[in-house]
From TrEMBL:
This is V(D)J recombination-activating protein 1. GO terms for biological process: adaptive immune response; chromatin organization; V(D)J recombination. One of its GO terms (cellular component) is DNA recombinase complex. InterPro entries: RAG1, RAG1_imp-bd, RAG1_Znf, RING-HC_RAG1, Znf_C2H2_sf, Znf_C3HC4_RING-type, Znf_RING, Znf_RING/FYVE/PHD. The lineage of its organism: Eukaryota, Metazoa, Chordata, Craniata, Vertebrata. Coiled coil: none annotated. It comes from Telescopus pulcher.
Length: 335
């Protein structure tokens, strides 16, 4: 009897051990897929972060490579024998400014000059696509063009470069890594991608152009000087269009009243520019070069003399007398 009792106890103990092990095994099995899913999620997140950092690093490297290239000809600034380069934005240098004055040219900033010489509008440039400087060789081309040197059309050896956004087959980055450029046939998928990128770039330019036009109309509303400034329509003489622009405010487009000149050599009515600087920020409304009220100076005396000697026709009905600008206020007060 005692032997049977002991065997019964062993059976009970064994069954208890089996029942205890089953929940543990079940718990262990249930934890394995959960831990596996967590690890997979972590790995996928890590891969996504790596891809993001790589693409960001690529863009930064691409932008750094652009800083070593000429905006116009695409040549390397490091290989430039003159060891000089010039910014595509802002006012022209003193030597070019002196030449422009000598030749009586109206352009005063690099964007204006580059449009006239190379037909390149850098105002719509994007830093991640376009270089921000041009080489001294292209600067010499500008000098000769302004000087009306013979055969200036052949001075630039090749056409201005067209710049494209960074891609997996970017020629700029491949060249800077020390590999030879290869011209490969574009498959339909890559061609489609390039068309999408080009369309996106055109869309950005169109939006920027519309924004510039909207800014211009907004600045006119801010200046609100229609009642106090004189329209160019009352000029008695049919002056050339460029001359009329040179004696007009670039904000309100009226004849300059109490004119001031910015660091980038643009002219505005004092009231108009001060209002715009206060409302829209401290930059030139024409070229967006940094500008502050303390930077404003009076134009040279020769320009003021030309301005004061403009002949205006009095718009008062029955008068239509021709008077100089400097005497116009006195004449109007007599009516």
């Amino acid at each position: 009897d005692s032997h049977q009792a002991n065997s019964a106890k062993e059976n009970v103990t064994g069954s208890v051990d089996i029942t205890d092990e089953q929940p543990k095994a079940t718990a262990t099995m249930s934890q394995v897929p959960f831990e596996t899913d967590t690890e997979l999620n972590k790995n996928s997140l890590a891969r996504e972060k790596d891809v993001f950092h790589i693409s960001q690093r690529e863009m930064e490297a691409h932008q750094a490579n652009l800083q070593h290239l000429c905006r116009i000809c695409g040549g390397s600034l490091k290989a430039d024998p003159y060891k000089k380069h010039h910014p595509v934005h802002g006012p022209v240098d003193e030597e070019t400014q002196a030449l422009l004055r000598k030749k009586e040219k109206r352009a005063t900033s690099w964007p204006d000059l580059l449009v006239k010489v190379f037909k390149i509008d850098v105002r719509c440039d994007i830093d991640t696509i376009h270089p921000t400087h041009f080489c001294h060789n292209c600067w010499k081309v500008i000098q000769r063009k302004v000087s009306n040197a013979p055969h200036e059309a052949h001075l630039l050896e090749k056409d201005p470069v067209e710049w494209h956004p960074h891609s997996t087959s970017c020629d700029i980055c491949v060249t800077f890594r020390g590999l030879k450029r290869k011209k490969t046939m574009l498959n339909s998928q890559l061609s489609k991608k390039l068309k999408i990128i080009a369309g996106h770039t055109r869309k950005i330019r169109r939006i920027r152009k519309e924004k510039q036009q909207n800014n211009k109309s907004l600045m006119k509303k801010i200046s609100n000087c229609k009642q106090i400034h004189l329209s160019t329509k009352i000029l008695a003489i049919d002056y050339p269009v460029d001359f009329v622009k040179s004696i007009s405010c670039q904000i309100c487009e009226h004849i300059l009243a109490d004119p001031v000149e910015t660091t980038c050599k643009h002219l505005f009515c004092r009231v108009c520019i001060l209002k715009c600087l206060k409302v829209m920020g401290s930059y030139c409304p024409s070229c967006r070069y940094p500008c502050f009220p303390t930077d404003l100076v009076s134009p040279v005396k020769s320009f003021l003399s030309i301005l004061n000697n403009l002949v205006l026709r009095c718009p008062v009905k029955g008068c239509y007398e021709e008077v100089f600008l400097e005497k116009y206020c006195q004449h109007r007060s007599n009516h």
